Amino acid sequence: MSGTVRILTPENVVVSYQSAGFAPRLVAFLIDSLIQIALIIAAGYLIQLGLKYNAHTVIGLGSLLGAVGLVLIFIVTFFYATIFEMLWAGCTPGKKMTRLRVIMEDGRPIHFTASVVRNFMRIIDVGIIPVSPPIVLFCVPAFFSMAVSPRFQRLGDYAAGTLVVSEEPNTPFSLPGKRTLQPQQEQYLQFIRNLDRITQDEYRLIQRFVERRPDMELKVQAALGEALARPLLERMEIDIVLYYQMQFADILGAIEMQYAQQHGIL
């Protein structure tokens, strides 16, 4: 079972995303969980160090270390995913390694409120029942929700109106390879500027075009590349003479690479 998200751009271009299935999301979840555990262990060490200093009458320093440790545990436990999703446009370290991204159902980048809602709902998705001692259902609610959802949405996704999409048709355990530019694209790198004028939505659109370009017919590459590139080049104030239509597609490849490097997406 799979689902497709389609976005209609102002240029009347439809961009499709493939919903991420259970396996890659589980891998991303396990990676993020290991990172969280490591951070919590480090925070616990700070608390222990603080207690040790307090026992040796270095009360001020001990209290400070203990407070830092407690705050770190709180942030890692409740806001780890939200912090990364805001900094990395819908990615956590685990999602970045498995080429997944969280977006809104209409294709827009995830916003703060939606991220908070979906990540606090993780308590229900994991199946933590707050009794003494707590009962954990080991992600049974999330698994059931994703199994019956045409877009593999867990309960947190339904509550927040979000989707987790796959950025390329990789296997669940594959890592992203290093991308390179073709010689005809590299020549445009020197002209790229004002990347801050590109929105996240526009970058995602350019990225999908670059990824799918090899599967397009030449005339489709040329026409779609020009439709996407012309308004961007004007807004970015890139004054360059292009002699044939396919060059618009090539310069989009250079823009995508520069933007990705500048924002740490590669």
Helix/strand layout:
Elements: E1 4-8, E2 14-19, H1 22-55, H2 59-87, H3 93-97, E3 100-104, H4 112-120, H5 122-126, E4 128-129, E5 135-136, H6 140-148, H7 155-160, E6 162-166, H8 183-186, H9 200-212, H10 218-235, H11 246-262
Antiparallel strand pairs: 1-2, 2-6, 3-6, 4-5
Helix pairs in contact: 1-2, 2-4, 9-11, 10-11
What distinguishing features does this structure have?
2 domains; four-stranded antiparallel beta sheet; alpha+beta; 266 residues; two-stranded antiparallel sheet; 11 helices; 6 strands
Order of helices and strands: EEHHHEHHEEHHEHHHH
Q: In percent, how helical is the residue content?
A: 55-70%
The secondary-structure class comes to alpha+beta
User: What percent of residues are in strands?
Assistant: 5-15%
- Please report the number of helical segments: 11
Indicate the multimeric state.
Answer: single chain
Computed CA radius of gyration, to the nearest angstrom: 22 Å
Strand order of the largest sheet: 1-2-6-3
Categorize the overall geometry.
globular
Count of spatially separate domains: 2
Report what the structure shows.
This protein has helices at 22-55, 59-87, 93-97, 112-120, 122-126, 140-148, 155-160, 183-186, 200-212, 218-235, 246-262, and strands spanning 4-8, 14-19, 100-104, 128-129, 135-136, 162-166. Strand 4 (128-129) and strand 5 (135-136) form a beta hairpin. The radius of gyration is 22 Å and the shape is globular. The protein folds into 2 domains: 4-166, no CATH class; 183-262. The longest helix has 34 residues, at 22-55. Helix 2 packs across helix 4, helix 9 crosses helix 11 (246-262) and helix 10 packs across helix 11 (246-262). The protein is built from 11 helices and 6 strands. By secondary structure, the chain is of the alpha+beta class.
